[in-house]
Amino acid sequence: MLRTHTCGELRIDQVDHEVTLIGWINAVRDHGGLKFVDLRDRYGRIQVQISPESIGGDALETLRFDQVLKVTGSVMERPDGMRNPKLETGDVEVIATSTEILGECPPLPFNPDSGDQVNDELRFRYRFIDMRREEIQRRFRLRSDMQFAMRQYLHGHDFLDLETPMLTKSTPEGARDFLVPSRQNPGEFYALPQSPQIFKQIFMISGFDRYMQVVRCFRDEDLRADRQPEFTQLDLEMACIDESDIMGLVEGLMEHVVKEVTGKEVTLPFPRLSYKEAMLSYGSDSPDMRSDLRIQEFSDLVEGLEFKVFSGAVDSGGAVRGMRIPGGGQWSRKEIESLEPIVKQQGAGGLAWFKMTDDGPAGPVSRFLAGAAGEELIQRLGMEPGDLACFVADGQTRVVVNSLGQLRKELAIKLGHIEPGVLNFCWVEEFPLFDEDEETGQPTPCHHPFTCPHPDDLGNLESKPLEVRARAYDLVLNGFEVGGGSIRIHQRELQERVFTAIGITAEEAESKFSFL
């Protein structure tokens, strides 16, 4: 065998053992004719003492960063005062008796240990060098450990790990398809799957009641920080369940994965919010629950406030909303006004505010709070001396939601609410079933055309489709959507009504989905 041990596994109980290691040179230190080399592989680092006799000729002076070495030697205990507590192998070193350079390395365009100091273009041009970084390798190990833990848990809950085709037909999903031309059928194309949606439904119809797959998905959509044209997802499908069943299983899955991979505990069950509540209270359908800042509605009080900015927004069909910032009353006027660009970037005209003092409200909005409506507003906010209240009013509710949602995120950071290492899960459910197509004005599925409408909203399916809620749910972690799903439609008549609502004719449905 080429090596007997890895660079990260040697310990004090292996002193006097002869070992053979292979790794990259991470550092070279010259000590009067001897070279002390830190040898690394993905398992860790070990110090190796190399003499001229162990490597031969002038090769000792040619040792440099990222050469690949094969070293044979004896494990020795480091002298007192020479141990390295930062390394798991720091109590020992290897005294080389034979050293061979397996791979030369010319000067690199950058040192992998430079990390974020190197610009992204250079890092990705030399991706194989960048991937030698300890942090990058840690992320790959984390990804591998997570997938193992997921499979471990799901196999224990009777799931079958099944594969689905990569070349398929185009079906209505949420984004554009990537197309692959067919060589044998000129002018015709395969589509790369946005998800295995159709295939996993076929599994359910066929009697496979619990399916899982770690699957590659492809979506031709604009790049964002959390979106890529191809990505990997854990895909699940279950038969004979409702929302509580899938949520309970996923909560158990997250508990298992987090504990196995990080050793941390998560609190069960996860909080559940409706989409409407999430957008009202947090200004986002992916709320970060680590912060307890909450947005409140005040549109019902504007008539009594006699503040034209507020009343004008409501009269235009919009809204007035705001939130209390505990302790924000200690900020200077300049600090408070520095928050205004945050909401203006979301389309708001400005930020209204007042402070609460021992003598009552103070600040730009305070003069409109003298009456009963003002007292109700202060009471609803729960204002105490030293607090700050901020408001956004606009003729478009969407602008109010986005503005305060972004402000809440920024304030959570400013106030120190975002504690590193804390994992805060929640569910968001009852999403809209349809959205309005910007070009045609017609309803289009927010999720996919097989999502079941909420039973209380079936009467609005034809008359008010945009008000229909879906039996859909997202799993949110620290302000990021990390999963989502829905209950499927099981009645042919209801499926036909949904197809009609989104403009899919009976002929088109038969052509695309006859197998279902």
CATH topology of the largest domain: BirA Bifunctional Protein, domain 2
Global outline:
globular
Number of helices: 15
Percentage of residues in DSSP E strands: 25-35%
CATH level-1 class of the largest domain: Alpha Beta
- How helical, in percent, are the residues? 25-40%
Q: Tally the beta strands.
A: 21
- Biggest β-sheet description: 5 strands, mixed, barrel
CATH architecture of the largest domain: 2-Layer Sandwich
What class do helices, strands and sheet pairing give? alpha+beta
Uncertain parts: none
Distance from first to last alpha carbon: 55 Å
Strand order of the largest sheet: 1-2-3-5-4
Number of domains: 4
CATH superfamily of the largest domain: Bira Bifunctional Protein, Domain 2
Radius of gyration: 30 Å
On the 0 to 100 scale, the average pLDDT is: 94
Describe this structure in words.
The protein is of the alpha+beta class. It folds into 4 domains: 12-103, Nucleic acid-binding proteins (OB fold (Dihydrolipoamide Acetyltransferase, E2P)), CATH 2.40.50; 136-262, BirA Bifunctional Protein, domain 2; 291-415, Gyrase A, domain 2 (2-Layer Sandwich), CATH 3.30.1360; 425-514, no CATH class. Helices cover 27% and strands 25% of the residues. It has a 5-stranded mixed barrel with strand order 1-2-3-5-4. Helix 4 crosses helix 6. The longest helix is centred in the N-terminal third of the chain and has 22 residues, at 134-155. The mean pLDDT is 94.
